[in-house]
Amino acid sequence: xxxxxxxxxxxxxxxxxxxxxxxxxxxxxxxxxxxxxxxxxxxxxxxxxxxxxxxxxxxxxxxxxxxxxxxxxxxxxxxxxxxxxxxxxxxxxxxxxxxxxxxxxxxxxxxxxxxxxxxxxxxxxxxxxxxxxxxxxxxxxxxxxxxxxxxxxxxxxxxxxxxxxxxxxxxxxxxxxxxxxxxxxxxxxxxxxxxxxxxxxxxxxxxxxxxxxxxxxxxxxxxxxxxxxxxxxxxxxxxxxxxxxxxxxxxxxxxxxxxxxxxxxxxxxxxxxxxxxxxxxxxxxxxxxxxxxxxxxxxxxxxxxxxxxxxxxxxxxxxxxxxxxxxxxxxxxxxxxxxxxxxxxxxxxxxxxxxxxxxxxxxxxxxxxxxxxxxxxxxxxxxxxxxxxxxxxxxxxxxxxxxxxxxxxxxxxxxxxxxxxxxxxxxxxxxxxx
Length: 434
Ligand SMILES: *Cc1c(COP(=O)(O)O)cnc(C)c1O
Fold this sequence. Notes:
Layout: E1 12-14, H1 24-30, H2 32-35, H3 46-66, E2 73-76, H4 79-93, E3 125-129, H5 134-145, E4 149-153, H6 163-169, E5 174-178, H7 192-208, E6 215-219, H8 231-234, E7 238-242, E8 253-257, H9 283-298, H10 300-321, E9 326-327, E10 335-336, E11 339-340, E12 346-350, H11 356-365, E13 368-370, H12 385-389, H13 394-398, E14 400-404, H14 411-430
Parallel strand pairs: 1-13, 3-4, 3-5, 5-6, 6-7
Antiparallel strand pairs: 2-8, 7-8, 9-12, 10-11, 12-14
């Protein structure tokens, strides 16, 4: 029997980590680029030049947030594509033989076959973590099939990458390290700036020894709305972010590519985006992405404090009604030299004896939308790879649920959520659903 509580009048959306609604100011900003300034940015007449200058402005505005040059921004169709471009692009650019043996220059556009044994070559090596988004994990797996070695390093019980382990994993043939800025399931903020510094000093000695520089990529899709994105401070060569997590349009994204970083494109054609992403540019999308990033960056500190306050409220109320709940991931409000160590909007916990997925469906009937892990993996992979990597048993992982807050959530919404959740939990335990 479902508890007799009236469904909420409007949807309480608590899955902002899966995607966000688009900010109406972003839509308004995009509209002229559908109807008025619809020219092809490559065209030389005025209509085309106007579209081109809109792209230039968008790149400039993003460059301010990322503290980089506008031309270092490559627009893509989302986070997944940017991640693929970063990882496959670096690997495919890498000649298989070690640098000192390299003779002559490889012709542009020629992809070296990534098979072992070429010139008795050494397989290139990539390091990533066990809790990355599937875009990163699947790209790395694809490269393993094509003859790369990949090390998937462990994280601790809160999801933090261990820098010592990362350093130990580095080999002479390591070409790339890809570590996410913040985790989409448990909100762990990885020490990217610290890894960047470590890598910079490592690279200095490698370059002296005529070995290849190790490139550093971070997947910042979850971090973009909440954390500092200064690529100089972070010390990254490549950074991925997308529109759909920051109140921008879906299928919009970018890859920051530090000057002089060589990548092989994924998509060949007219040579747009400095040859790295051919195809007529999505002008409204890119303009919208830039606007969305500008808006979230301006309001970042204020919104972070508001979300932390709401999350503290939710945790305190839930703990009161359901003392058995267990938090997954870093402590709430954990700080490290003034930097957040957990995303302000992320809340992931277990309710022992209750199946997360069942609870999710019941909450849906009260007009409450929550996640049970990552939107991209729930449904087909069994227990979350992230929760397993932080040491949860399959059953504990399956009794976990993820609530991610965002700008439309109020205290009143959360008080209703607590009411429904505690009533439902009693019911679900009563019928021994799990
Ligand atoms: C959403 C997300 C992606 C994928 O982005 P899309 O724009 O959906 O392709 C990649 N990495 C992380 C951490 C994400 O949260």
